[in-house]
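If you are new to this repository, start here. Below is one unmodified record pulled from the training split, so you can see the exact layout before writing a loader.
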Amino acid sequence: MSQKSAPIIVIKKKGGHGGHHGGAWKVAYADFVTAMMALFIVLWLMGSSEKVKKAVAGYFNDPKGTAQLLGTTMTGTGEVVVDDEANKMMLEDLKEKLLKEIEANKALEKLRKQIEITVTPEGLRIELIEGKNATFYQSGSAQLSESGQELLVLLAKELNTLPNQLLIEGHTDATPYAGGGTYSNWELSADRGNSARRLLQQNGVRGDQVTQVRGYADQLLRVKSNPTDPSNRRISILVKNSAEGAPPPVLKHAQVAEGAALPEPSKVEPVQPDKPPAAPAAAPNPPPAAPAKAGLISKVTGMLPGKKK
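And here is the target side for that same chain:
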């Protein structure tokens, strides 16, 4: 009789935990919590003020915060710095007034095509563009011509009445400076900007009204296809938006506690050292307080299913 073979026993072990010990529910729970957080943020934003909404929208439009890092270009284009309709209207009115005065001046009327005044997001940009002949500056020099002096005096009489700050830029073409040596287009552009500043301040522009004088040489050409074009030689006067650089409002003591007025020192009665302070008079029973409005969280909680008290 043959010997019976021993049965083969196979032991199977389950890897990991199953049932409620698994990890799939954690992913679903995390998604649920994230969705609820997004819901409450949206509900909070819907009930917030317009100032908060604009601040949140500004963050998502510019997460890195680089929109305010503005440079300058030939035409002054860039991100909108100030959204102030009253300021824009003021700059538009100034532009029309300057154009009318230039047209009324017979000596400057012939230079009308070489004077460009545009309203940009940075402010009002006034550009004095050189022609083939020396128009506003003597050739290769920072000395102003008669036309340049007359125009800057006219501008100074209008600009000194404004609270706006001024920025002056000097530009040259790509033709190397003929004088040679260490003096170059960099020095020439800066010197022309400074000569314009001096004449403006001598005719009424305040000393602290001009905040910057820049010399760009031939780095910001007006006609890039022709670096030696005479129109690349120009002076730009930027009347900056009035909201830029304005000092922050100073809060008074009465505004610190959300508009609660503090008692004036003269009305505070000092306590006499030899007399105990008088007991305060009994105040009349206050009227029943009106029920407080339910907050946003209470409203949302009331919408949830379940037993309500």
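Two things worth knowing about this chain: The two ends are 83 Å apart (CA to CA). Residues 24-46 form the longest helix (23 residues).
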